[in-house]
Amino acid sequence: VRGALKEAAGEPLVVRDDLEVGEPKQGEVLVRVSHCGVCHSDLSVQRAPDGPLPAVLGHEAAGIIEACGPATAGYAEGDAVVLSVAPSCGRCVACVRGQHSLCRESRVMLTGTLADGDSRVRRGGQVVYRGAGMGAFAEYVVMPTSAVVRVAPDTPLELACLVGCGVGTGVGAALNTAKVEPGSSVLVFGVGGVGISIVQGARIAGAARIIVSDPVAARRDLAAQFGATDAIDPTTQDVVSEVKRLTRYGTDYAFDAIGRPEVVSTAVAAIRAGGTAVCVGITLDPTVPYTIDSGMMFALQEKVLRGCAYGSNNPHRDIPRYLDLWRAGRLDLESMVTARRPLEQVNDALDDLVAGRGLRTVLDL
Ligand SMILES: NC(=O)c1ccc[n+]([C@@H]2O[C@H](COP(=O)([O-])OP(=O)(O)OC[C@H]3O[C@@H](n4cnc5c(N)ncnc54)[C@H](O)[C@@H]3O)[C@@H](O)[C@H]2O)c1
Ligand SMILES: [Zn+2]
Ligand SMILES: [Zn+2]
To answer: Which of 13, 109, 191, 355 has its CA 20 to 30 A from that of 211?
Structure first.
């Protein structure tokens, strides 16, 4: 099996053609990956100084089921599927509370292995880990059905893969996490794949004003095509005073889709009293704290600051829902895929992210 490996921290990925992917076990299916989008989280994992090595990266994928292990009722060979970066088992304490994105199985996705401690991938007899929770920059991946969603056979998988992470996270952040209402005002920091999807979620929810902040002019222009009503250049404008000029009291909602502590502070400052700021971006350095300006005003203004894991999605409910919105012409996936590359160009795809080139690069496997 061909796959792109992180073999050393910060080094370019290496495409190998001699990976061995194991049989699916209880509750698992083997998926022939057809497409995988490249998300900023892959770049973060590639750059991270720690984490088990070697590891196959890639976690925004879709494909066709090749084989089913025992206890996989409802799944069959040949099914078209979107793989979710966050599983939902439906049985754990988080799932029964309705907080599917906090499913106990999702911890497994962060360890580089499946629940039994094995990754199902080897190279020359040596264990290869599942980087970024999945390992889908490879022709085959073994997945627990808790993270596998069947889709209609005619679904274009080169678009649908995005719903497995970036698009699902962004649209879900607006619809599920924040529950944006019609007529509300929304501020989005960082309009890459995730931020643009928040813009789309806010538009679907009927937000009246959608303000974006991004230093890259091309990204701000793109955001307008997806429904942003106003754009701020944070390198030349003061974001909070510009937001107050546009909305008087601040926005109802603000989303950090970058993962920078200073942006989270700005998001809290830019929402109105009673508003909600949502942390979608992920700061990989766990030693960097988030700070908010004034404890007293935060309390008296009843502001809300909350996290967001994968758009608070239940993948089994929300991935079909977002694809229905796409079929209805209300969620634009076509314009989000700005480049398609073969697996061999995976490092160029990561460079696209660094350079802010286009919006999303999809790898064809
Ligand atoms: N919470 C989750 O479940 C979840 C899921 C997927 C991705 N993520 C995270 O979301 C973030 C975004 O991912 P992406 O794939 O969209 O990344 P991306 O690189 O495509 O987009 C990031 C954008 O932020 C902009 N930016 C950088 N600095 C800025 C600043 N100071 N002010 C405003 N904009 C700024 C960049 O120009 C770029 O357009 C990453 O941190 C990623 O790890 C989180
Ligand atoms: Zn992702
Ligand atoms: Zn669960």
So the answer is: 355
Residue nearest to atom 3 of ligand 1 (CA): 310
Residue 286 pLDDT > 90, yes or no?
A: no
Mean pLDDT for the stretch of residues 119-138: 95
pLDDT value of position 174: 98
pLDDT at 49 over 80: yes
**Separation CA 141–CA 309 (nearest Å):** 23
* Cβ within 8 Å of residue 325, ≥6 positions away: 171, 204, 331
pLDDT level of residue 283 (50, 70, 90 thresholds): confident
**Ligand 3 centroid, distance to 181 Cα (angstroms):** 28
Helices of type H across the chain: 40-47, 93-96, 106-109, 157-160, 166-172, 193-205, 217-225, 239-247, 261-270, 295-300, 315-327, 346-355
Mean pLDDT of 72-79: 98
Residue list, ligand 1 pocket, CB within 6 Å: 39-41, 44, 165-166, 169, 189-195, 213-216, 219, 234, 257-260, 263, 280-282, 308-310, 353, 356
Q: Whose CA is nearest to atom 15 of ligand 1?
A: 40
120: enclosing H helix or E strand: none
Res. 296: pLDDT tops 90: no
Contact 146, 105 (CB under 8 A): yes
**What is the C-alpha to C-alpha distance for residues 27 and 342, in angstroms, rounded to an integer?**
31
